[in-house]
Every structure is written in C-alpha cells, then in structure tokens.
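Exercise 3.2. Students should predict the tertiary structure of the chain below and write it as structure tokens, then compare their answer with the key that follows.

Predict this chain's 3D structure.
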Amino acid sequence: MTPADVNRLSIAEAADLIRRKKLSPVELTEACLQRIGSLDARLHAFITVTRQEALATAQQATSAIARGNYKGPLHGIPLALKDLFDTASVRTTAGSRITADRVPEEDAEATARLKAAGAVLLGKLNMHEFAYGGTGVNPHYGATANPWDPTRISGGSSSGSGAAVATGMALGALGTDTGGSVRIPSALCGITGLKPTYGRVSRRGVVPLSWALDHVGPMARTAADAALILKAIAGHDPGDETSSEEPVPDYAKMLEDPRLKSLRVGVPREYFFDDVGAEVLAAVRSAISTLGELGAQV
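Answer key:
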C-alpha cells in the first residue's frame, strides 16, 4: 500500500487494517506527516505540527496492538485539533497572535478523551481568529485555502480542520460550531461535519466564542467516521456545568439501519430556494428526495 493509498483511507477502513495488523499506526502517521509536508505550505491547514509527539504516540500504539492491547477504532488513528482545544505542553493560539505563546497545563476534556481512545494527535489546526468568522481567512497564520480550488476559501471558522481532512493530512479532526463553524468548512471542503446536540460533548478546556452557543463536533470524510469520533468524545463531564447526563448511544450501530421513519423534516418554501445556483439547487433537491426515500416524512 502506497502513501497515496493510505491517505485515501477512511477511519473505519484504517481501523480495520490496524486491527488485523495489515497496517501499523506508525505507517499511517508517517503517511499523514508526509502529506502535511507536501501540501501544508500551500493550504495553511496547520498552525502547529507535533511531529515528534505524533510519531512517539504512533509507536506506542503499534507496540500495544502487537501485544494484543487494541483499544478500539480510534487506536493509532491520526487526528488533529482545531487550535482552540487546550493541549498540555503544546501551544493553543485560538488563531491569534495575542495568544501565540499560550501553552496550557492541561488537556481539554475532548483532547483527553481522544488520547484515551488511542488516537494519534498530529497537531493544531488553523482557524478564523478566535473562531469569529466563517471564511477561514487568518492574517496571522495564513488563509486556509480550499483544497479543491486554492483560489477559494475553505470556510470557517474550523478552516484547517476541513482542509486537513479533505486532503488526507489527517483522517479526522475536531472543530467547534457556534454559527456554522463545523458545517461551513465541511460543506465547502466536501467532507462530513456534525454539530451535536448542545451539551453532548464537553467544552471544558475549549477557548470559547459564546458559552451559550458553542458546540464541539467531529469532522471526517464519512458519516461513519464522524460517528466513531463522536462516540469517543461524547458523554457527561462534571467539569462542564452544561454537559448532558444522557447516555451515549452507539452512533456507528445506528448507521447500520438507515431508515428514517420516525423523522419529520421541514423544508422552508419561502426564500430557501431563492437566488440559488442550479448546481446547488439540484444537490439540495436530491438530498430532500433521498430523505423521503429513506422513510422520513418531508
């Protein structure tokens, strides 16, 4: 398997190969780091790449799996974090020069949960400064270019997360969404992004934009991959007073039955379809039809 083949793997595919010892976390991490080295100077997806730490974690994962200590589907998987998730001993800039040298002493809860799941963290991803914007244009660390057309924006504020996942620099990433900051770059970069229910994922250790509106969410190539990440980071955190105590379901299992018979989907008739390009309009209408075919009441 060539590095190019590795970079096209989904998390689920890579996890299956790792579990069966057909691919090692070290090989996978090296392929991602090689991809970062070849693309990031043009795309500006990363603010900080933690190369040595990532390789060390990948080696630990490889050794543990060889001994039969496989933790689950994120074990040995290279992921990255929007640069407002606290990371112990690694700077967290929130995309600003004001906090360019801020080095947290503790991990954010979401960071810690990914580490506990065995994920390999590649570094900190570019973003709109303090998450306050939807373009991904950052005057301090470079505007994150759209990987499909570098003359266009990647969307924000989780711009680096979108570009890194779309190009295989990371197999998945965490973003935050206050007013579209996971969904916009996911749409513009052609990946899957999810804004979970408020309180589903702890925000402790995440630089806030709005305490009442911030959500932590996964960004990945497929819905199945997003489900695996969400399963790892979701759950009650006593350190976050807004954290939900609802049990965490098996999201990946839920995807095995795509029927949506209990779902009612509202489609606005006024303004929603006005001034929309033909290609976008066709895609939206196709999505609405698919929901109906899966059993949803539209």
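Discussion points: The domain at 3-244 is CATH 3.90.1300.10 (Amidase signature (AS) enzymes). The beta strands are 46-49, 78-82, 120-125, 145-146, 149-153, 172-177, 192-193, 215-220.
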